Amino acid sequence: MGVLKKGSKGGPVKDLQKKLNKNKAKPKLEEDGIFGGGTESAVKTFQKSKKLKADGIAGEQTMGALDGKAPANDAGSGASGGDAKSGGGGGSKSQKWPHINYESFQRRELREFEKLDREIKNKLRDVNALPANDQKSATDLKKNWDKFYPTWHKQVLGMLKMQGDFDRAARSGSSKMSDILKTADKSASAERKLHTAMAGLQKSWDKLGV
Fold first, then answer.
1. Residue 77: its pLDDT value, please?
2. What is the pLDDT of residue 100?
3. What is the DSSP annotation of the chain?
4. Is the dihedral of CA 24, 25, 26, 32 positive or negative?
5. How far apart are CA 99 and CA 210, in angstroms?
6. Average pLDDT score, the chain
7. How confident is the model at residue 105, as a pLDDT?
């Protein structure tokens, strides 16, 4: 397993959250598989309790400590095992894609939101045909969906392409890895904000019950 940090998503993050909760994380974390600010704070608190580098990055040593293993003193690994950072002299080959399981998670999200997009466009083709008390809500929802969905969709496809570019650069030891990571971090931050808006619209759609 690679390094888990803010922005990571998927099963490994959910496992991390479960382990943090077993170690009495306060407040208790929602085990949703999304590495947000709450998870980062819980990781830092745990790291401090184990006298590890409190950087909020769950690497090999932090995960080992969560499993009850004594921290290893591997040279150059950093106290938290934060492999995404070379710590000087490590070179680009030590870098790893920080957005764990991004591909599998977002491909699932793509399928769900693409299906919802078709459903919204089909059922809200003629808003005036809806009951009068639903028309304003439906109009607002469709307007916001048309605003956020295309941007989010493009952002996710871009991130998936970047992960492929990064994997190819890693295999060849290319110096482009660092540049790809910087761009990916910015894109992941933008995608999280868009995803929050999309999730809110999904809830609004469910409430509308058209």
1. 34
2. 53
3. ---B-TT-BSHHHHHHHHHHHHTT-SSPPP-SSB--HHHHHHHHHHHHHTT---SS-B-HHHHHHHTTPPPP--TTS-TT--TTS--SS--GGG---SSTTHHHHHHHHHHHHHHHHHHHHHHTTTGGGS-HHHHHHHHHHHHHHHHHHHHHHHHHHHHHHHHHHHHHHHHHT-TTHHHHHHHHHHHHHHHHHHHHHHHHHHHHHHHH--
4. negative
5. 36
6. 80
7. 66
Angle at 97 between CA 92 and CA 100, to 5 degrees: 160
CA atoms within 13 A on the CB side of 183: 15
CA count, 13 A, side-chain hemisphere, 186: 5
d(CA 9, CA 104): 9
This prediction has a pTM of: 0.51
Q: Tell the residue number behind the tokens 């929602």, with chain if given.
A: 30
Weakest mean pLDDT among 56-60, 90-94, 135-139, 173-177: 90-94
More confident residue, 190 or 1: 190
Alpha-carbon 122 to chain mean position = 30
